[in-house]
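step 4 of 6: structure.
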Amino acid sequence: MRIEIICTGDEVLTGKIVNSNFSSMSQRLEDVGLAVRWGTTVGDDRESLLRAFQLAGERADAVIVNGGLGPTVDDLSQEVAAQAAGVPLVLDEAWLGRMEEFFRRRSRVMPPNNKKQAMLPAGAEVLDNPIGTACGFALDIGRARFFFTPGVPRELRRMLEEQVIPRLLARSGLQTAIFLKRFHSYGLGESHVDALLAGVEALVPDGSVKLGFRAHYPQLETKLTVRGADMDDIRRKLGPVEREVHKRLGNFILAEDDQTLEGVVLAELASRQASLSIAETFTGGLIAGRIAPLPEAERVFRRGVVARDLTELCAAVGLDGPALPAAITRETAEAVASAARRHTGSTHALAVLIDLDQGADRIDLGGTICLAIATEEHVASRRSRILGGREWVRLGAVELGLDCLRRHLQGLPVTERIDFEKT
Amino acid sequence: MRIEIICTGDEVLTGKIVNSNFSSMSQRLEDVGLAVRWGTTVGDDRESLLRAFQLAGERADAVIVNGGLGPTVDDLSQEVAAQAAGVPLVLDEAWLGRMEEFFRRRSRVMPPNNKKQAMLPAGAEVLDNPIGTACGFALDIGRARFFFTPGVPRELRRMLEEQVIPRLLARSGLQTAIFLKRFHSYGLGESHVDALLAGVEALVPDGSVKLGFRAHYPQLETKLTVRGADMDDIRRKLGPVEREVHKRLGNFILAEDDQTLEGVVLAELASRQASLSIAETFTGGLIAGRIAPLPEAERVFRRGVVARDLTELCAAVGLDGPALPAAITRETAEAVASAARRHTGSTHALAVLIDLDQGADRIDLGGTICLAIATEEHVASRRSRILGGREWVRLGAVELGLDCLRRHLQGLPVTERIDFEKT
């Protein structure tokens, strides 16, 4: 099935906003085994919209149109859709009622120009939008089925999931039960993971498991898309593949599905009624910034301290006197972590110290990272060197620190070599 | 002049990467007074590329093609461009020499498949790429001039600026001297600033000054695009408009052009040999994270402390005893800021305390922000309430804290009302 996407709106066309709706739609369709073949971006302009609808209607089987369903005069999607399909616009009384109810529940009177949102091309099929006033609809133009969706990202996501994808899958003749299993890792590059997982798809011989990746430095997402008759069928197929992925990626899997690294760390700490303090240098508070604002972090996150100067950092964790560390080493990180734990009375402390290369920012500027995790019983530490410029080193150090803490809490080695470090 | 953009590549089409090249190109063209009328996205697929080139060649005067100039087999731009133009591919000896030199300077041998990057459609005009091996080129297809550019963002930006835009401006017959003046503000919404600046364009009656905005919460960028015969002409036109913008937006302008809020704060502190400590709660280290990692921050940024619990935060700044604050108020923020300054011996301290609404995250969840700035002489403070969910409150509080510090350092009132706060 040939699918196209048309994104509309002056804000997208002029680059005022980055078109993340396109990538999120396209990615989600890939996840369920559907491929987008062509994307078009046009402004709020009658002539361009009409031409874009006509061209896509000649080429595609299905077209998703995004945007232009709002109440203002520059929202033209319904009107141009009707023109392209050669039908009049008619008032959808049911949707008008829904909108009036929508405003009533918010104790507001519906402005008269919102009525425009209930004017749909005659014969269009309504696509429900339970969280907004923009009414989605489906309609044939040329040889393609068109799906009109709202530009507001959360309304789009919901309509795509609940209304558009089921209809596309039904049309494509694909098995409609689809499951997306995701593994998040840190420390292995995409091509490395690809090589490690060679052949896992073949564990299900009928080709209903598809492997994919999404890299967002420093993390990598490994995706298994599984297709089946129903969820039982999917679980039966996924089981052995999932076990194999776990076996091959092992300690590098830091979270699955909607979990996050910081969420996993927080849950591990919370489950043992532990508390955490963090000492940072060049990461500047970004490690604390991942944990401290989480719901439930109040009970776990004890204190974060940040300083660019080692002496100042030592003072902030109550470390002074003649034995003051002078350089950033593993031993220094261990001393800072231990002191931070004692000073704040937390059960755990993480110290991430960075010795950044001198000079102007450049692609081969690096940083030496010494980190330590202290508990009452013992201290673990590692030294690592990352290249790639100030921001790259900083982001890498944040992830390395959090991931080593995760490993420590899960009883895994904190010193396992990662692909991003140079030695 | 009708301009189109064609973005190529499976990674963009499948949504694996968000297409920020499109928005950055489109935005930059807008800045120099050129408008993009149509965008197309296709994958690394011969048939789609050819069709996209043909369609754009029928509609447009100028077309920018992005991506597909690399050395691998799925990089098809040169080949399909030659096919669309009906010319053969020929080896550009000069570019081949440039590439060999590029590898030699990096002490590497050029892999044989890179030679493909020097194969250009016969008659194409070379567009220089001083920082990569992908050779840009220009060529007529249909009625349009096509400009082929590399997918690597920094190579694209440079080629767009130095090669493509001058050629587009020359073709458009527009005055070729262009200047973009930018003002960054926090606290006023886009429509508010638009209203405040009504009529400023008309101060230059020939229409050569254009006003535009780019909102990226919490900051707003106000842009003046000025067109002239040369830079002297531009400066003469810009002067009165710039002064008027300053007069109308006043204290809300926090930085200009490439300056950042954190950079302005750091420079103000550095210029008076001052030092800074920061105490944060729900912002979790993000305020420190804006300042601490900056070049030159080593000398200014003294210490940051983060805690979710007020008692813990007080302990971290040496504030204890019977007078311990029990609730988040302006007075508490003042006490924490003063204590942080004394405790760390810094000349300045910023405390940002947040009382977050209870319950699950939701669009009307709010936070009450109490912040204070302490110096040896006095303490300034403000209270503010922001709605919009956990992340919105958190980002707003980071900006509010930094901007109030900026205001304090510049001798401006820290309590001026902003559009985002509810009272």
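step 5 of 6: annotate
 - Chain B is about 35% helix and 25% strand.
 - Chain B touches chain A through 66 residues (CB under 8 Å).
step 6 of 6: archive
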